[in-house]
């Protein structure tokens, strides 16, 4: 029985024997991962129910799927390369804060689809993508499709606050307090998330003209505002 020594693992002739790389298989896996990544991107955009939609995060799901596929293709084709990738990836630390727990679901979904495509389990990748996509659509079917806005109001006293919150609640479909900052002699700043009725923004002028109000602003999720 022939035994391979540790030093032979790193010889070029040994690498040539264990390396199994097919351009066709690689192209098919990457194309399929790209198609599934687009599907994940589409589901995320349509099922999104958070406050601030991030287009850059959504596009990164496509890249995440394809990059994971590429890594798995490399790991499964070369033993030495797989050891190097394990060492390299073990020192990577991602410190970007994920604000919405649902975003983590989409990240794991994209990574899982990339692993399946890289491992050549194409039927499982396709079936899993369809089932998970339909499930996420069903779970988000009852979401409010109206865009969220932030109402920022600065006023002087507590009595004015009760009047303003009542006016806001009557003028919009839904509202909730996001933050309240009391600045002592400078008054109070109140921020509320609202869903508009038929895109009606006239109430912001009523807020601005109310007694005791020094500032009133309606801010959309893209950063534009109407004073």
Entry keywords:
227 residues; alpha+beta; Alpha-Beta Plaits; 8 helices; elongated
What is the tally of beta strands?
A: 5
End-to-end C-alpha gap? 83 Å
Contiguous runs where pLDDT drops below 50 for at least 5 residues? 223-227
The secondary structure category is alpha+beta
Return the average pLDDT rounded to an integer. 76
Share of helical residues: 40-55%
Widest sheet: strand ordering? 2-3-1-4-5
Strand coverage percent: 15-25%
Strand/helix succession: HHHHHHEHEEHEE
Main sheet record: 5 strands, antiparallel
Count of separate structural domains: 2
- Which geometry do the CA atoms define? elongated
Number of contiguous helices: 8
Rg calc: 27 Å
List the helices and strands and how they pair.
Elements: H1 12-18, H2 23-47, H3 55-77, H4 79-89, H5 101-118, H6 122-139, E1 148-155, H7 158-171, E2 172-182, E3 188-196, H8 203-209, E4 213-220, E5 225-226
Antiparallel strand pairs: 1-3, 1-4, 2-3, 4-5
Question: Summed up, what is this model?
Answer:
By secondary structure, the chain is an alpha+beta fold. It contains eight helices and five strands, in the order H-H-H-H-H-H-E-H-E-E-H-E-E.
């Amino acid at each position: 029985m022939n035994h391979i020594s540790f030093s032979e693992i790193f010889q070029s002739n040994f690498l040539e024997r264990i390396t199994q790389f097919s351009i066709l298989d690689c192209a098919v896996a990457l194309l399929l991962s790209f198609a599934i990544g687009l599907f994940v991107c589409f589901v995320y955009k349509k099922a999104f129910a958070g406050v601030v939609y991030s287009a850059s995060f959504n596009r990164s799901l496509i890249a995440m799927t394809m990059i994971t596929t590429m890594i798995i293709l490399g790991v499964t084709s070369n033993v030495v390369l797989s050891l190097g990738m394990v060492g390299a990836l073990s020192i990577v630390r991602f410190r970007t804060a994920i604000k919405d727990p649902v975003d983590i679901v989409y990240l794991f979904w994209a990574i899982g689809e990339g692993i399946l495509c890289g491992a050549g389990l194409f039927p499982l990748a396709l079936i899993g993508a369809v089932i998970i996509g339909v499930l996420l659509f069903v779970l988000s079917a009852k979401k409010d499709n109206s865009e969220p806005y932030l109402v920022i109001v600065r006023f002087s006293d507590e009595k004015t606050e009760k009047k303003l919150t009542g006016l806001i609640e009557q003028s919009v479909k839904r509202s909730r307090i996001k933050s309240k900052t009391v600045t002592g002699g400078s008054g109070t700043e109140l921020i509320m998330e609202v869903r508009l009725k038929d895109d009606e923004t006239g109430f912001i002028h009523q807020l601005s003209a109310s007694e005791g109000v020094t500032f009133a602003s309606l801010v959309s999720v893209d950063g534009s505002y109407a004073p």
